[in-house]
Amino acid sequence: MFKLFYSLLISVFIFNGCAPVFNEFQSADTVGDKNTLVTPYFSESTAIPDDSDSDASSIEANSTVGLRIARGISDKSDIHLKLEKIDGNGGYISGSIFSLGYKHFLYKDTVNNYRASFYFPITYATRNIEENAFIDIDEGSSTNQSYILLEPTMIASSKLHRLFDLNVSAKFIQKIAGDDLGEDINESGLAFNISGGITLPELGGISIIPEYGILFWDQDKFTHTGLGISLDLSKFKN
């Protein structure tokens, strides 16, 4: 059972470079015209098998280190650049992600300070897989492959305290181009993330972002937990 699930897990890893990567580490706010927000982060992901696989337990899937850079092109619109390095558990799989996205602010409730925005990134993902006891590489097949993904995302935020934001996002991930994933492997998934934005008043322009997320993939699920630190560079101007 373990070998069967691990083989499935590696197959699904192919979907998004190394393992399903679906983190957000941002609020619904845009950064403001000509301002820049830099957010380094790290994340750990776990694969949870189908409920019917009672003999299979969750597996640590991968670790991710990334950097998001948001640049305001108007008060309501940003361009985002996202870079990630991914290392799969066991050293069998590694990958990287380059993402370029557009974010637009949609709504603000000035009374309760609810905000909403739409984020639309296009992602180029690469992966490298080594042949091992759980998966065979077909003769003539490349172990270095790449994919292009669309990831339309809705983000909502609520300021629960002057120093604390609650952020919730929903993301649909769809492969649109690249190497073949193989038979019976879906090319899409649905993810949800929840995070907090903790402002540090004594360190102007710096916020801490703890995050938890879940991705639904057929009958299986993937979760991630991580931490980001956002740096508002406009606060550091002399």
Count of structural domains = 1
Helix fraction, binned, reads under 10%
Please give the number of β-strands. 11
In the CATH scheme, the class would be Mainly Beta
Work out the oligomeric state of the chains in this entry. single chain
Protein described:
This protein is mainly β and 238 residues long. The chain has one domain: Porin (Beta Barrel), CATH 2.40.160.20. It is 5% helix and 60% strand. The chain is built from one helix and eleven strands; from the N terminus they run αβββββββββββ. Strands 1, 2, 3, 4, 5, 6, 7, 8, 9, 10 and 11 form an eleven-stranded antiparallel beta sheet that branches. Strand 7 and strand 8 (164-178) form a beta hairpin. The N and C termini lie far apart (60 Å). The model is unreliable at 1-8 and 14-19 (pLDDT under 50).
